[in-house]
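Researcher: Quick one. two chains, 251 residues in total.
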Amino acid sequence: PPQTPIRAAMTSIQQLRGDLTSSGDQPSTNLATYFKNCTVDPMQAVLSRLETLEQAFSQRFGLAVGPRCIVLGCQRFKLGVRLYYKIMEAMLKSEEKRLSVQNFSKLLNDSTFHTSLLACALEVVMATYGGGSFKTGGYNHDAAGDPVETDLCFPWILDVVDLPAFDFYKVIESFIKAEPTLSKDIVKHLETCENLIMERIAWRTDSPLFELLKQEHGGGAADQVETPAS
Amino acid sequence: SHDYHFGLEDHEGISELFDCD
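Model:
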């Protein structure tokens, strides 16, 4: 049968769900071992962060697509969590091989790393489901006439998990390296996110990039950094 | 396969990107 956009989306969703059937909702034995090898075991912090972010995600998803669809948001979040664990394990295996160390305490206790990785996994899930399918130009109005968000496209996820785009940028390449089965369309989507960040979002006034540029060049050269407007 | 351009060198990884090595 001819390929249609809906058929293509269905195939991608089935593939993603299929790839993640063997990944659990909890860290695998291997991943749990990486956690245990840490000077400070990050497990409790990981679980607690996921709980907080699941609430934020479900709430914002419900606001965007209607309270009756909250269950869909929960399903997507759960798929995102499976992908997050799967990619984290692959990244750590690759780092263990590269650095010949098994204690990743600093990285695994870095909240920004976890939030970035989870945001990337959720973005992959949202893009696979067609994050744009709910897009109606930005805002709809609810029964009371108040605006409700309907655009779940990137960078929506950054706002939901409260993550600077600059930090999200850091995980993209390693994420693609760690998951060779990502479809061509998804890789292209992540590349589009990367370009958006590099060209626009990372240069917004509140970006951590400016502070890093200042540190890199020393305090005296700080005034040489161009303003976001430039 | 895809056309993504990998920019990280072999000696760079996620640990360096988050300043954790």
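The two ends of chain B are 31 Å apart (CA to CA).
Researcher: Thanks, that's what I needed.
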